[in-house]
3-isopropylmalate dehydrogenase (Streptomyces marianii), 692 residues
Amino acid sequence: MSRSLNLAVIPGDGIGQEVVAQGLKVLSAVLPQDVKLETQEYDLGAKRWHRTGETLPDAELDSLRQHDAILLGAIGDPSVPSGVLERGLLLKLRFAFDHYVNLRPSKLFPNTATPLAGRPEIDFVVVREGTEGPYTGNGGSLRTGTPAEVATEVSVNTAYGVERVVRDAFARADVRPRRKLTLVHKNNVLVHAGHMWKKIFDEVAREYPAVTTDYLHVDAATIFFVTQPERFDVIVTDNLFGDILTDLAAAVTGGIGLAASGNINPAGEFPSMFEPVHGSAPDIAGTGKADPTATILSVALLLRHLGHEAEAVRIEDAVAADLADRDGTPRTTDEIGDALAVRVAG
Amino acid sequence: MSRSLNLAVIPGDGIGQEVVAQGLKVLSAVLPQDVKLETQEYDLGAKRWHRTGETLPDAELDSLRQHDAILLGAIGDPSVPSGVLERGLLLKLRFAFDHYVNLRPSKLFPNTATPLAGRPEIDFVVVREGTEGPYTGNGGSLRTGTPAEVATEVSVNTAYGVERVVRDAFARADVRPRRKLTLVHKNNVLVHAGHMWKKIFDEVAREYPAVTTDYLHVDAATIFFVTQPERFDVIVTDNLFGDILTDLAAAVTGGIGLAASGNINPAGEFPSMFEPVHGSAPDIAGTGKADPTATILSVALLLRHLGHEAEAVRIEDAVAADLADRDGTPRTTDEIGDALAVRVAG
Ligand SMILES: CC(C)[C@H](C(=O)O)[C@@H](O)C(=O)O
Ligand SMILES: CC(C)[C@H](C(=O)O)[C@@H](O)C(=O)O
């Protein structure tokens, strides 16, 4: 466990700034006295792009690399063409820092609204592959903009990339009480990638005899997310399916305001990056309505990744207690951050 | 309106046989006396593949082509390697007969269970592209089965293919009371295909000034499916996103037992094919537990496509009335079919 924490902070766009401020507040409150927290803020996102045309210059990528971890708020603004910041900044970071484990826990906390009737018990983790699949940027277009245009998107999958994320998922499942791992893909249609995923999954499974496994097609998985979410423990899946499933998971567990994520480079060759699953929500930016809980839970994942397990648990317990004690009175971003900072310190 | 109906029937696997029998029962009951119904059954699916190694020989494809429409039960069995029947039979039919509109209505009928609390009003239609996207079978694998394997899946999208399905969706939205069309894609990541879809969508939109349009990323769309499904009227989307979204839609509208679909070739150059969204459910095959309603609703889509609008509505009304009158006593496949046959005839 390191006795200093050198954190890069990318507030980004919209509500990013506001929620990150609360994340840092809670982080300062929870850290042991003897851990020195240093933060460096990076001005990246829509404003920067409008000003300079830059999304993520190499110099800043090099600088970001020097940190223990990255806390990111949200990236994206309607004033920027779709894809520019996503590909040029967010995905560039995930790929450059080899964040091959995109970790997204889903838990239905007490006293939180779910659109599902009957309040099923929900407590699962999605291990989403983060550096391959249809996210690689392969593909292109021919005769662009004409009636004869052909546009392709290539999902690239390697045994190297699949095996490492599948291993990570098995290791996570193996230390959870239910020890269950579900592979989600679409191997009846995407046969090349799907069969490779399945084959590697089955091979690694042999090393984890205590882990129960199953396989679901992605379409069927969405059904179980709403009819039987309690059946899931750990899920491992490809980059795009993971993107879709984790938004759905967030929706059934009380909304995107509570969904945390870690873009993890498990070996620690590069800094891992933690961010709420939600976007920049420009419609509520500056109103104090943004819920910083997802960012604060992302800080817990950050602490866990860096070996501060006790502090991670303190944050998660504080969030559970805070949600349980709510009386429905609307609170501002700042008030929620304050309440959680008090709880983790106390 | 044709005064004869020359129907190809592919019962397929598992519960396919049982549900198709009920579909034909209701079809016979609803058809006007003077419409001559001729059916020809095709032995395709898992059993045939085990026996002969064939999925869909050219001679049968040619023969199928002679019919006015195809009614399909379900394809797939765990004894057949994943992908063999899907690619070799079901998708082969969709591609060979240029079923570029995969039409999937979602409606929450009265007195049906939904996993969603508060029973939102749900009545939308997904127009799923059926002949492109990641379903084209492009891609492959290199160094297959070795630790150095690379597997790709190529999503192929053409302006030709996108424009025709987008036009179909606008035309459908334009005659519905709410006149709303949502494009679902992931154009912030799949920029080549996504931008082409969006550009064509925006262009066609200009010809339909009365249709309100919006755009959602596929991940965000899944959130609205469970938190605000009443916001959707018509959705147009790519083949894979449509696959995922329509299973989720089926789940929130009372389950896959009620979800109908049409694989439509709008110009009628080839026979269109109608099938329940559900699979072959080998676990309940032969038990009489399969709900034939999805198949019967698919027969309604078939009739509408062939110009028998009044008969289509009769079936849909009968299903609504049948569901409303249910008292919860379990009914067999046959009993449900009988009840609906009586209603449409009466
Ligand atoms: C903004 C977008 C590129 C991103 C993704 O698709 O991964 C987001 O949806 C997420 O899930 O983090
Ligand atoms: C069986 C499978 C190939 C098919 C698909 O993916 O289209 C099914 O899921 C469907 O939705 O009709």
Observations:
- Chain A has eleven helices and twelve strands.
- Chain A has two domains: 1-113+276-346, 117-253.
- The first helix of chain A runs from residue 16 to 30.
